[in-house]
Amino acid sequence: MKRVPSGSRLLALVALAAVLPAAAFAAKPYPTNTCVADKQLDAAGYCATALRAWSKWERSQDAVKRDAKLAKARRQLAQGWAAAEARSTKAGVDCAQTTADAVAMAGITDSAIGAIVAGVNDGLDLGQKAHGGCGAKLLAGAGKTCAKLLAAESALVRTPAKDPDRAKRTAKRDKALARLAAAAGRAGGAACPTTATGATLRVVYVEAQTASGSTAFVLTAIRIGRRTR
Q1: What is the pTM of this model?
Q2: What is the pLDDT of residues 91-103, one digit of tens each?
Q3: Cα(105)–Cα(30) distance, rounded to whole angstroms?
């Protein structure tokens, strides 16, 4: 039977936030806010689509189909970001320098997804149908969570005045993470012996600024502890 090598215990979901000028926090969306918020929604779509492709791979092990879907998703992300930047430029604001480019964002997300897949598959034998089905469900759930986290960040960046204390964003984030934690917590037993567990689920924020210092990426990392055997 095929055994998946043990990987990192880190499940990472990517959330993007930009350091915006003070004017960005006015009641009416500033063009930069709108652009970054649109980019976040595109990134949400990419994260969900990519994890869905990996989810299907869990069952089929068809790397060709998986890679084709991932390539298509990257093209759509690039097109979406280019369109957002074009709209911002038309409004008189250069949004291209506010975030990294789409290629870099896809790379960050792909790295995080690799950690997610490794974490979920640690303990699974994808040669067994039940194991593949369990892994597929967990990865699909992680994709939905990733999309919800980014959508929550997008809503905050678009109109921060509507959520001045970040309570709405926090509530959406916590709800999404709780569902993923519950799904991981239910996994286990002979049918799904993954080491991923919701018991030690926690969120870690890591900020990585660009060389210019004008942009910050917030990586929302979900650390999964080993299940006690």
Answers
A1: 0.78
A2: 998 888 877 788 8
A3: 22
